[in-house]
Specification:
Radius of gyration: 25 Å
Helix content: 40-55%
Strand content: 5-15%
CATH topology of the largest domain: Rossmann fold
Oligomer: single chain
Strand order of the largest sheet: 1-6-5-2-3-4
CATH class of the largest domain: Alpha Beta
Structural class: alpha/beta
Number of helices: 18
Shape: globular
Number of domains: 3
Length: about 400
RNA sequence: GGGGAGAUUCCCGAGAGGCUAAAGGGGGCAGACUGUAAAUCUGUUGUCUACGACUUCGCAGGUUCGAAUCCUGCUCUCCCCA
């Protein structure tokens, strides 16, 4: 199981933005090989947003690699921090989660994470186990291990401070709590995105304060979302979830900007660097990026679903967007028809859930974005018929079932 | 404890008594085009029983024929001094 130092380093380094400090990682690995003792690799998870998306998988893939190298993987569910609520930015305090919600989220998390990691060899722990027992005295002792100036070095604190945005005192405790997790677990390595640098190093410092060997901080890049600018996140709605349907995944991948294709290949697939380089060269030589995007979509769907789903998704995509046909499976919506079955289209669209309001529906209609059975309509009042397919824009469909 | 500044629509940000459902940008949606739900261009972007009506500028009152704009109180945020 144990690979040579060189090989391990090769795998560990791949894709990582920064490893701090590198020489200590080498030492830890040497020791691990010598004593045949796996390293403890830690990753913290926030239980408030239980939908894992490709952005998270960048780090998870790395964790998987450690796992395959025979090291010990520990996932920390940050239920304690989640219970307190983290008011990031603005005045919108994040709602506090109940124990029940957290447990539910944690279960969802595990299910999704185990699409990547091996459940049998992954330890999952909750940080409330130790943090919930902290006395005020313990809190003070922990807080005394750092200074305000140091905390304000953290990027987002610094920005908010400079932009005159509010920062709650309790927010200062987040890095401390996360860092303490490392102390509790005696972690050897902690993974995170580059935005976690401060927190990871805080863990290292705290471990030393508590007389332990400091952990290694390994940072992976932050994946941009579908817009290509902001980081992928659920709240920005620019994400591809690992539980998205093949159809959704396909469409979403096709909507990324062409410039992002290679980066996605590198960060969220297991294709070799050689393969990726070849594609990059072919594109610069003028090959259609669309075809590589299709390959990317199929690769991703293959990872989270399977190859035949990927092919189906591709066919459907081509039918709808290239050939302008209707999809095979359209959501059927039951409609209680009163009287003669005549409807004002904006209202109908709203009832069917294709638009948010009748005003919205009117706008879409005015911009000739409504089709019935594939034909653009120009009449605002229509008579509904059973099995009629109403379409808004290119991708919203509903089949009416009259009750 | 004292003194200043501020809160505007999904977000950022103009507006300083009627011409304001509120400039501009971002985002969203639709259309055109296309090699893609890329890029580009155009339109649109409070709600409704829809050529009209109703509700929105932190919250609650008040002045006025008329308030996002003026007054009072409250809530929240930031800065400076101590």
């Amino acid at each position: 199981m144990e690979m040579s130092l060189e090989k391990q380093l090769d795998i560990i380094k791949r894709g990582a933005v920064e490893i701090l400090p590198m020489d200590e990682l080498v030492k830890k690995l040497e020791k691990s090989i010598r004593n045949n003792k796996p390293l403890k690799v830690k990753l913290g998870l926030d239980p408030s947003a239980p939908d894992i998306h490709l952005g998270h998988t960048v780090v998870l893939q790395k964790l998987k690699q450690f796992q395959d190298l025979g090291h010990e993987i520990i996932l920390i569910i940050g239920d304690f921090t989640g219970r307190i609520g983290d008011p990031t930015g603005k005045s919108t305090t994040r709602k506090q989660l109940t124990e029940e919600e957290i447990n539910k989220n944690a279960e969802t998390y595990k299910k999704q994470i185990f699409r990547i990691l091996d459940p049998k060899r992954t330890e999952v722990v909750y940080n409330s186990h130790w943090l919930a027992n902290f006395k005020f005295e313990d809190v003070i002792r922990l807080a005394a291990k750092t200074t305000v100036a140091r905390i304000l070095e953290r990027d987002d604190f610094k920005k908010r401070y400079e932009d005159n945005q509010p920062i709650g005192i309790h927010e200062f405790f987040y890095p401390l709590m996360q860092g303490y997790d490392s102390v509790e677990l005696k972690a050897d390595i902690e993974l995170g995105g580059t935005d976690q640098k401060f927190n990871l190093l805080m863990g290292r410092n705290l471990q030393k304060e508590y007389g332990q060997e400091g952990q290694i901080a390994l940072m992976m890049p932050i994946l941009e979302g579908l817009d290509g600018i902001m980081k992928m996140s659920k709240s920005l709605n620019n994400y591809i979830g690992v539980e998205d349907s093949p159809k959704e995944m396909f469409g979403k991948v096709m909507s990324i900007k062409d410039e992002l294709i290679i980066r996605y290949f590198k960060l969220v697939t297991q294709l070799s660097n050689e393969e990726i380089n070849i594609m990059e060269q072919e594109m610069t030589r003028g090959k259609n990026p669309r075809d590589y995007k299709i390959k990317l979509a199929k690769t991703i769907i293959g990872q989270y679903h399977n190859a035949s789903d990927a092919i189906k998704a591709e066919e459907e995509f081509i039918n709808i967007f290239s050939k302008n046909q209707m999809p095979e499976n359209i959501d059927e919506i039951e409609l209680m028809v009163d009287g003669d079955g005549n409807y004002w289209v904006p209202k109908l669209l709203q009832i069917l859930g294709l638009v948010n309001s009748t005003s919205d529906g009117k706008r879409v209609f005015d911009q000739s974005g409504v089709k019935i059975n594939g034909e653009k309509i120009t009449e605002v009042n229509i008579k509904v018929e059973n099995a009629m397919v109403i379409q808004v824009g290119k991708r919203k469909f509903a089949k009416i079932i009259i009750k």
